[in-house]
Write a structure and sequence with these properties.
The complex is a heterodimer of chains A (277) and B (317). By secondary structure, chain A is mostly helical. Chain A contains eleven helices and no strands. Chain A is elongated, with a radius of gyration of 23 Å. The chains are: A mainly alpha (277), B alpha/beta (317).
């Protein structure tokens, strides 16, 4: 370690930084956010957990259906059966979505990030794009893997289905979109609340607890309220045999879930731009 | 160049920063001095656009911080060395910062070498000591080779080697013509490094002057005298307009007269002197006197049972 007063401020032989035209903007912010998400181990553990629990619970449900042939009703949906692990996968992706922003607040990194790039809208968008892409790719992997493993388990009983059947491809892709949308909702909540536990709790409340509480409403209200619950509405996108006429259709339901996410993201962005960091 | 004009930040009922106006000019180290809680960190956060001022403006090179085209090329800041994700390696932490301003990747290696962290570049920063964390923060501030550098309490908690390293680095950076704005709650630290001082207390500007001016204005000369004929000398000093008191160890401490004048008085009154010396009140004392009215919390006398007497006197919070 240099201890002399003539301390170098630049390593020997290194040239001064060249002047760059233009402004720091979205391209740099995207590269930075990708570096952030790929350079912490928790990302990999969370994504691995996401795939394992989604595929695992889907396989369990599929094997169960194959083992109890007498309990299948006429509305049995082998695609939905193999994708049921998505309900558990939601839990994992909301943790990663919340952490994308809340970890910057808990560590104080947000001050460092905003000192490097003070354009908050750009930082917000870059985080959303990078996390959204990672969530979508992983969600698709989990959904596709769940589908094929589930169908393989059910094929012995000839109750499986194939991607070529009506709505099946939409449902399998929809499973990935469903997870990405849940993650984006949690990211928006994380930006609003700036606290990991609070954001995860809020996301669980909205996605799980709200759906449970609806069951305690009078039956005549339930049919109007239930379909608007984010997880129930979004879940329609991975249903291939619509049996409940009170529910939204696949894409309308997904749009409702997307609407919740957009509201959370918009509120998060407005607060992020206004508040002290 | 940093220019603050009427800068004000209010949190509820508390005025953290109260109509501050000052300039921080290039090519020298400007010390930003004040007791803890005086508003130094808040002021720095306002400069960096992290917090929004309640009133007033602050510009960096003539622009609001958020308007700078490539902020890291103009300003580097170390506010809190712990403000990193502990699970990320030093290299990746610096890389993600560099990428926001499209700085070349090689620059990450350069600043790591500069601060002496090359060997631990791939290690997660969670395991870093306080000094290593401080070096990582400084590496981040230097990434864009900026002309303005801001450091908030950079030597806090460092060992003597680390303190010396940071002092020398700041001097070298200032010698290259850069603007260095460094905060501290210790006058003694500023005495060694800064040329210019901005002193605040309770968010208000107390002084904005060179260190030499600050010393001249705020420290009084005292004269220490030892003599077997204390009574005679004390009367002569009092008659000549000085004040005198016994320090309890047989030494008289004289205020208001020069050492030469005290010596003359002793000669005139045939008083034998065993010691005659003059001393400057330390700058630390001057600073404490100046900010005494503006300390947020004052330590009361310790009221611990005798068996639990503290080993060290508590610092003013």
């Amino acid at each position: 370690m240099a201890m002399t007063s003539a301390q170098p401020t630049r390593p020997a032989g290194s040239p001064a930084l060249p002047a760059l035209p233009g402004r720091a903007g979205l391209a740099g912010a995207l590269r930075s956010e990708f570096t952030k998400i790929r350079s912490v181990r928790s990302t990999y553990w969370t994504l691995l957990a996401l795939v394992v629990v989604t595929v695992g619970f889907g396989a369990l449900a599929s094997a169960g259906a194959a083992a109890h042939p007498g309990e299948r009703g006429p509305g049995f949906d082998p695609t939905q059966q193999s994708l049921v692990g998505l309900y558990v996968g939601q839990l994992v992706i909301i943790v990663l979505g919340a952490l994308t922003i809340s970890s910057e607040y808990s560590s104080g990194m947000i001050s460092t990030s905003l000192t490097a790039l003070p354009r908050r809208g750009t930082v917000f968008a870059a985080k959303a794009v990078v996390f959204g892409a990672v969530a979508l790719v992983t969600g698709l992997v989990a959904s596709v893997a769940s589908f094929f493993l589930g169908q393989a388990l059910m094929s012995g009983q000839h109750i499986g289905t194939t991607l070529g059947q009506p709505h099946v491809l939409r449902a399998v892709i929809g499973g990935g979109l469903f997870l990405a949308a849940c993650g984006m909702l949690a990211y928006g909540l994380g930006m609003i609340l700036r606290h990991t536990a609070a954001a995860i709790t809020a996301a669980i409340g909205l996605l799980f607890v709200a759906s449970i509480l609806v069951n305690f409403l009078p039956q005549s209200w339930q049919v109007h309220v239930d379909k608007w619950m984010p997880a129930i509405a979004g879940g329609q996108v991975w249903v291939t045999k619509a049996t409940d006429p009170t529910m939204f259709s696949a894409w309308t339901g997904f749009a409702v879930l997307g609407g919740y996410a957009v509201v959370a993201l918009a509120a998060g962005l407005i607060l992020f731009r206004r508040r002290d960091a | 160049m940093i220019e603050a004009r009427g800068l004000t930040k209010r949190y509820g009922d508390t005025l953290a920063v109260d109509h501050l106006s000052f300039d921080v000019g290039p090519g020298r180290i400007t010390g930003f001095l004040g007791p803890n809680g005086a508003g130094k960190t808040t002021t720095m956060r306002l400069i960096l656009g992290l917090d929004r001022p309640t009133d007033g403006t602050v510009t960096v090179n003539g622009k609001a911080f958020g308007q700078l085209a490539r902020p890291m090329r103009e300003v580097g800041a170390l506010l809190d060395a712990k403000a990193v994700h502990g699970g990320r390696s030093a290299y990746n932490h610096l890389l993600c910062l560099a990428q926001t301003n499209s700085l070349p990747r090689r620059r990450v290696g350069e600043v790591l070498e500069l601060v002496g962290l090359s060997d631990v570049a791939k290690k997660r920063s969670r395991g870093f000591s306080l000094g290593m964390g401080q070096r990582l923060g400084i590496a981040g501030a230097l990434l864009g080779d900026p002309a303005i550098l801001m450091f908030d309490e950079p030597v806090n908690g460092l060992d003597p080697e680390g303190i010396l390293w940071i002092r020398n680095l700041m001097k070298a950076l200032a010698a290259e013509g850069r603007t260095i704005f460094v905060s501290s709650h210790l006058m003694s630290e500023m005495e060694h490094t800064a040329e210019h001082l901005i002193v605040i207390g309770r968010g208000k500007l107390i002084a904005d002057c060179t260190v030499a001016e600050f010393i001249a204005q705020n420290s009084s000369e005292t004269v220490r005298v030892r003599t077997p004929q204390q009574d005679i000398l004390a009367k002569a000093v009092a008659a000549a307009g000085g004040t005198v008191h016994d320090d309890g160890n047989g030494t008289l401490v004289v205020h208001g007269l020069t050492a030469g004048r005290v010596g003359d008085l002793a000669f005139d009154n045939a008083v034998r002197l065993h010691e005659l010396s003059s001393a400057q009140a330390s700058l630390e004392e001057a600073f404490m006197g100046l900010t005494a009215g503006s300390v947020e919390f004052r330590a009361g006398p310790p009221r611990l049972p005798e068996s639990q007497q503290p080993e060290h006197a508590g610092e003013v919070a």
